[in-house]
Design a protein that fits this description.
20 helices
């Protein structure tokens, strides 16, 4: 086998390991990205790789975003935090190099999608087994909900992973409704139901909103495009029936939903811990941004400056917990000024526009899910958020899955 082919094969295997590992144990993604980088450097063929990289608009946005962060180090006082932030956001620099310079066949993209789904189901089963074990020890039904369910990953971030699994399954089922067998429809429908109920059990409020958005799109498509309104009604009854049973079993889901409803109709300053007070955090962040709108305060000083503003406004809990802005656009404006804000918007707008042009509904659903999540979380400030966004957005922006082509098993049919 030629040397280039060997490196291409290794690169694909490493990408497979990456998408499988993300939902199972996301910290391992750092090691896999390092291995991908080494393989990228060892593979050579620089002229062709450079041509692919510069041809992609999105690569320039990712690199610009990281460059703005680097400039912010010049005005950062807390250098250690600044360097740590640069390390956390390193996927903005590495992911374009290893993804945009790699070509995948349709079959390979389909395999990567399957591996991500497989990793997600493995992680769900692991979490359920741990919850059963903890329940047998404690007798506490709360072990099946929220942070006690998603053990080593924040339920909000995990709900975004699972909602993307849901998007893949819903898209496949709706777009191929007429081609696939009844047995396959039932299997995929059961998988969708399982994932939807699991997302509900995570009780991440924004995760539930995104879940309903994806389900609404899928059921509307079935009803309008395929005239299958009976299927939509039956599926809705089953999902809501299962979720109602969960509400009857335990008080925690009910309390979370009641709090969610309260937050939608009113906002108060009684407790920074709940998302009704995101607006309070945003107001404090905007107070700092007003004085530093051009350059920001620098990534290393973002939290320090926010804590000063929290103290000034009497927000004791926010200051004690050193909370960030809980909004990625606001966080980018705070850290890197107007240029950071523009770069963050472009990370979503350019792939969204491209996806609309080529009718890449899967990438649109991903951008909708992650973009909605970024309204209430500074998702790029954590490894769980930044690795997932950079890898998935680049993979499905440059290599959209064409399901009908993939079914032909044509390994020479490239997606770009």
């Amino acid at each position: 086998m030629p040397q280039q082919a060997k490196h291409a094969q290794i690169q694909f295997y490493l990408f497979g390991a990456l998408v499988f590992a993300l939902p199972v144990y996301y910290p391992s993604s750092s090691l896999i990205l390092i291995l991908l980088t080494f393989n990228f450097l060892a593979s050579g063929n620089w002229a062709e790789k450079w041509a692919r990289l510069v041809a992609s608009k999105l690569s320039w946005v990712f690199l610009f975003c990281y460059f703005v962060l680097m400039l912010g180090l010049a005005i950062t006082n807390n250098k250690s935090v600044g360097y740590f932030d640069m390390e956390t956001k390193l996927p903005l620099l590495v992911a374009p190099l290893v993804i945009l310079t790699t070509r995948f066949t349709v079959i390979q993209m389909r395999t990567l999608g399957k591996l991500f789904i497989a990793g997600s189901f493995v992680s769900m089963l692991l979490f359920l087994l741990l919850s059963v074990y903890n329940f047998l020890l404690s007798g506490d039904y709360n072990t099946f909900f929220y942070a006690k369910l998603s053990n080593w990953i924040h339920p909000g971030y995990y709900s975004i992973y699972l909602n993307f699994v849901l998007a893949i399954l819903v898209r496949y089922l709706t777009l191929n409704w007429l081609e696939i067998s009844t047995q396959k429809k039932l299997i995929i429908g059961a998988l969708i139901g399982f994932v939807a109920v699991f997302v509900f059990m995570l009780l991440a409020k924004v995760g539930m909103l995104i879940l309903f958005g994806i389900m609404f799109w899928g059921l509307a498509y079935l009803t309008i495009k395929h005239k299958r309104w009976k299927v939509s009604v039956v599926f809705l009854i089953l999902i809501f029936g299962l979720n109602t049973m969960i509400l009857l079993i335990n008080d925690l889901p009910k309390r979370r939903l009641e709090a969610f409803y309260t937050e939608l109709i009113r906002s108060d300053n009684s407790s920074i811990a709940n998302s009704s007070n995101r607006s309070v955090l945003w107001q404090a962040s905007l107070g700092v941004i007003e004085k530093n709108w051009l350059t920001g305060v620098g990534a290393g000083d973002g939290i320090d400056e926010l804590v000063k503003e929290y103290d000034r406004r009497g927000m004791e809990k926010a200051a004690r917990k050193r909370l960030n802005s809980h909004n990625q656009l606001i966080q980018s404006l705070l850290d890197s000024g107007i240029f950071g804000g523009i770069a963050t918007l472009l990370l979503f707008l350019i792939p969204a526009w491209q996806s609309v042009k080529i009718k890449n509904t899967l990438n649109l659903m991903f951008l909708f899910s992650f973009g909605t999540f970024c309204i209430v979380e500074s998702a790029f400030e954590t490894q769980a958020g930044i690795v997932f966004f950079t890898c998935i957005s680049l993979l499905f922006y440059e290599h959209p899955i064409k399901i009908k082509d993939a079914l032909k098993e044509n390994k020479d049919n490239f997606t770009r």
